[in-house]
Write the structure tokens for this entry.
Amino acid sequence: MSQSGVGRRILVPIGVAVCLVAAAYAVYLARRSFIRSFFVDGPVAPTRVPRLPIVAAGPALGLGPAARVRVLLIDGLSLSTARALAQLNQHCATGLDLVIDVGFPTVSLPVQGVLWSGLTQQQSGIQYRNALLTPPARATIPARVADSAAVAQWYPYIVHSLGFAQVEPAAIELEPAAGAAWLDSGFISAATAAVRGESRLVFVHVLAVDKAGHKHGRNSAAYREAAAASDELFSRLVAADAARPGGSRSRWFVLSDHGHRDQGGHGGAEPAIRWVRGCVFGDVEPWRADEPPRIHLVDVSRALADALAVGLPAGSAGRPLAVAMAAGTPPRASLPRPSPVRWACAGALLLLGLAAAVWASAGAARRWWSWLVWLPWWWPVAYLTVVAIESRPTLSTPMIYKPLGQTMAAAASPGLALLAVVAALTVSRGPVRLVAAQLALPAALLLASAVLSGAIGLPAEVPPLMPVWTAHTSLFAVLLSAGALTGALVVLASAVRLAFGRGEPEGTSRNRP
Ligand SMILES: [Zn+2]
């Protein structure tokens, strides 16, 4: 072969490698902006009112108006841990012991927004907010109770967002010095005083369990100790309320807003995180059942609104509590899901990707079986090692938010190593064919997942939050960009070999796979 022929042979792989690096960078940038878009408020279109089953109401449960309502929310308390709390068990046995679906995503401010408005995360458009809502929500239950009061242990921005007339602490964020005194003793004194006061509605938000969950995980002694301490605090608050001289009993609602993964973290639709324990007692007839009834958080909103004799916002699917308890709640009642059109588009993209991979593989093969070697086996290997070493990706797994996706890329390295080996063995057949065979199907999987999550085809103000697909889109993007970089390295190495006259240019090999 002439010198100029070899030159052209070198230019092609260099061009392909440059394109692969550019594509990897473009996927990286797109993934960054995709993750940022989770945190934008915006309603899902079309707004989906959850369809909760209705049956004829059960026996009257005494859930008419109550003189006073007390609500305790223990942030991040998993159902299994809550069932082991002695004080909670004792009080729940005197009233209604419930299992509550908090909807999706399982993020504190949005879930508490559901509790106080009766509208799901998808209806309100407050799906993944971790900062003060400005202005605060107005169409809420506390905004309709003149003397409603809230006391927050930590992150006061949450209760400041929900429409309460009075909030403690008054600051949106706790300063380090004032915060230490507040956490040490101020919070418990303020919560006790509020609970025994005359406000018709008092809300106490406990956050120590969630803090322990994030730091140590659900399967830790620290988490169980924080839960036990919150159980003690709960018992003190109930005792303080009962000691009020001459007053009638308050109606208590105790619940959580989400559970935690074993390793810590929440946000996704996992049943162990999305279903929490709830109790209603005091001024309520007890309910005897083998299994606690499964209701939805909007049913709790309805029970709160009924107790306080205020209305719920239009569009709330909250059922009378007796109806909700008798009818139950389907496992995925309020979870968003992709439309049939999106499934069809995703299927078409996958078929295109598969066709490109088979075309590139078959075109390069000499024997009937050898095209199978060219298929992108590295991708399922990489996916499975990420699941095995880390976990199945969900909105609860911190790895899907990391800007570089380094945790997932490291766990995918066995698949990437396989890609490097197959690419090195087959690059002599041409870098373009190699790219089509190894990366077309992974690219189609990323696009299909992006369609299913809503990242493609929704207005910019609608966050692409979908169980399963949002988190998988983040992983699929990391796999594609890491695969493209791996391919670029192999193609560049082949160009270097050609430049030094040691590689075999395309079409001259005698040992085809
Ligand atoms: Zn949390």
